[in-house]
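INTERNAL AUDIT FORM
Audit reference: QA-55
Scope: verify that the stored structure record matches its stored sequence.
Auditor: D.O.
Record contents follow.
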Amino acid sequence: MSDPRWLNAMHTKYNALMANNTWSLVPLPSDRKAIGCKWIFRVKENPDGSVNKLKARLVAKGFLQKAGFDFTEIFSPVVKPVTIRILLTLAVTYKWQVHQIDINNAFLNGVLQEEVYMQQPTGFEVADKSLLCKLHKSLYGLKQAPRAWYERLTQVLLKMSFVKSRCDPSLLVHSQHGSSTYVLIYVDDILIIGSAPHLIQDVIHKLNVHFALKQLGQVNYFLGIEVHHLPSGALLLNQAKYIRDLLVKTKMANSKPIGSPMMSSCRLSIIGTDTMTDPTLYMSTVGAL
């Protein structure tokens, strides 16, 4: 990785990991095995497709973990689509504001309960290569990382008198004196909806005491959905960018659209076809659709 921008992103992330006391270097116990790690690079885009920033992330190779040995329970805080639609409908109906925040390095806030050892990250090894990273905080890629982050976040919200919804554990509600505030969690993307602007700001201020976060203001892009605020107070939702990105990914950006893209007379063969050169692309495309 020779591009200085990516090198700078790696150093920024590594410094954040060290400041967070994510691990300590120790000899590997004889009854333990260390998992690997790797750097992942991503260009974060704005809703209009322009470059927001370059991101480097250190990811643990969690697929090497063993259940009951270095992880137990897993859970990912993914708010249900129906929950999002209901809350947005309430916001439009009652003219409530919908604010979005992004927690910086969210998973690094989760505290690990299990013993997990990881190899030193490439490019940042110390002189003694035999030392391993004993993880204290969760790291992206670990099986239990989403659950550890969710537990830490909800502990803070519960102390703020929020209550978990029985229908969706990724929705927390605070009601007092006829006022209501809702927090919707999708991993590290969070929507805060309140019946009064000062209630939303109060929640953001209290969360900022515990976590480094970015205030993104009124929601305009969430889970691949663009949100446009109309003068009438209505919200217009579309997935134009999501679709454009999918077309580029599948090299179909310049394809001509037709009304019925699938042949009605197509007969599927029981024998099948030739093996695909990239089955992962096919699976990810079907998942995206």
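Auditor finding: record pair retrieved intact. The first strand starts at residue 23 and ends at 26.
Action required: none
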